[in-house]
Structure formats: structure tokens, C-alpha cells
Task: structure prediction
Amino acid sequence: MQTMIDLIDKKLDEYLPIIYPEDIFKAMKYTVTLPGKRLRPVMCLETTRMLGGDMNKAIPTACAIEMLHAQSLIHDDLPCMDNDDFRRGNPSNHKVFGEANAVLAGDALLTFAPQLIIEKSELSPETVLKLVHEFTKWGGAYALIAGQVVDIESEKGKFVKSPEETLQFIHNNKTGALFKLSMRTGAIIANADAEVMKEIDRFAQNFGLAFQIYDDIMDEISSFEELGKTVGKDKNSGKLTYASLYGLEEAKNKFSSHINICYDIIEKYDSEIISGIINKLSSRLTGV
Ligand code: GRG
Result:
């Protein structure tokens, strides 16, 4: 996995040279290249590899997805959203570059990412079109943005659905969508058939929920050093999370049931990397 992360980091650096006007490129590059786990690009590359495709052809898409993820983190940290001063163990983008540049850096990453897929993917036009379609679908108002909007509404006490349904909607869209995007694009590059795509979707759906439940639990039990961002914020602000709605024990049970579905699916494929990622999450929650 470290080899894959090193490759992603090298390409992210290469795809984002600092040119005139430097302020915007510096702000874009700042959050993208801060130390993150690179889970989404790794899952994209690994899905292509485990399904028999050429991993190198997935590099532009994997990097574009990390840029979209970084964009969502930059905007999420803004004072008008989550108002967080730290991200990835460092000051948030707007703390370093100011709010206007942080908004623009997010916008620029969001638009540069599909440009990268189109310009750098050595794939057929038909495949590139499918990739850009996935990117816009999961990154937009039908998924990622919808999740953020409902999250903000729920913080203000606005509930159109039950708290349980609302929470699942937020998590599926705010977090699950980018894992779906990562694995689905990886599968498209490997030319996966409809049956495999169905399994990939089911894996990503359950992984996304498990990952966000993990994130909710970690916000309560972890430290700034481990997470690289402010901890205990969800609890202190009375935010709707798996931990606040179900309690820590039940949240852990729900995490386990989603992660067990992931184990069952990934067992059929030869992926030490993805098995390793789910092992790591599970072991961190064992005994806490
Ligand atoms: C697409 C225009 C547009 C806006 C996006 C701001 C926003 C709308 C969505 C926020 C989405 C968000 C911040 C979700 C949280 C997901 C999450 C658990 C992030 C942390 O992921 P990790 O732990 O982080 O993988 P690293 O830093 O390791 O990459």
C-alpha cells in the first residue's frame, strides 16, 4: 500500500505545478498534498488492479478523486460550514490562504479534476466519458453536496425524514459517495461486467457507512494527534452522529455488521490492500 501511496503523492505533486497566479495554485496544492491517508485513490487503483485492469491507466482518475476529496475538506472547514481551524494535522486552507482563496482553491480543484481525467487518461473516449459522468454524478447535488446540505439542515434541527433515515442519507452521500466513485471508476477502467459492478457498489456502500461510523466514534474517543483535526466537536455541538443517535456500543455493532459484509465481498477478490484497510479500521475499534 505504501508503494501505491508514494506513486499517488508523486503524481499529485506533478499534476499541480505552481504557476502564475501562484496564490491559487499554492492554495490548491496545500490541502491536496498535506498528509492524508489517500484511501480513495488507493481504492480506485486497487479496484482496477484486483479486477485485472492496468492500474497505471487509473492514476489520473485516482488523483482527480483525491482532489475532489481535498476540495470537500477545504469547503467543509470554512467558517460558513464546519468552521474548523485544523485539517490533516495542519491549519485549514482558509487559515493559511484566507477565505476567498480557500473558496476559489476548492472551486479550482473541482474543475481541474475532470480536466485531468480528460487530458491525462490514456483510455478510449467512451471510457473517459463514463469516468467523467461518475465524477460529476457522485461529486454533485445528487450525492456529495446533497449529503452536506442535509447535514447542515440537521444541525439546525430541520428534519424532513426520521433521524435514522436522515443520518443514513448524510453518511451515504457525504462519505459513501466518494468511496463509490473511487471503486466504480476503478472497475470501469478494468472493464468490469454488470455483476461485478453490483458487488463493488455493495462493498463501497457498506464500506462508506462503516467508515463514517468509525469517524463518528473516533470523534469521541480519539485525540488531535491521531486524527489531525479538532476532536469532540460533534459531541460538543450536539451533532447527529451514529454515536449520538445509537450510543457508542450500538454504533460499534453497526460498524461491525457493515464491515462484515465488506469482508464477505472482498474475500472473493485477491486484495491484500483492501483487506488490510478494513482490518486496520476494525482493529482500531476492538477493545475501546
Ligand atoms: C462538491 C462543491 C462541492 C462541495 C462539497 C463541503 C462538502 C460539499 C462536503 C463535505 C464532505 C465531507 C467533508 C465529508 C467528510 C468525509 C470524511 C469522513 C472525511 C475524512 O476522510 P479521511 O479520514 O481523511 O479519509 P484524510 O485526510 O485521511 O484523507
Notes: The pocket of geranylgeranyl diphosphate is lined by residues 36-37, 39, 69, 72-73, 75-76, 81, 88, 110, 139, 144-145, 148, 174-175, 212, 215 (CB under 6 Å). The first strand starts at residue 86 and ends at 87. The longest helix spans residues 194-221. Residues 242 and 251 are 6 Å apart (CA to CA).
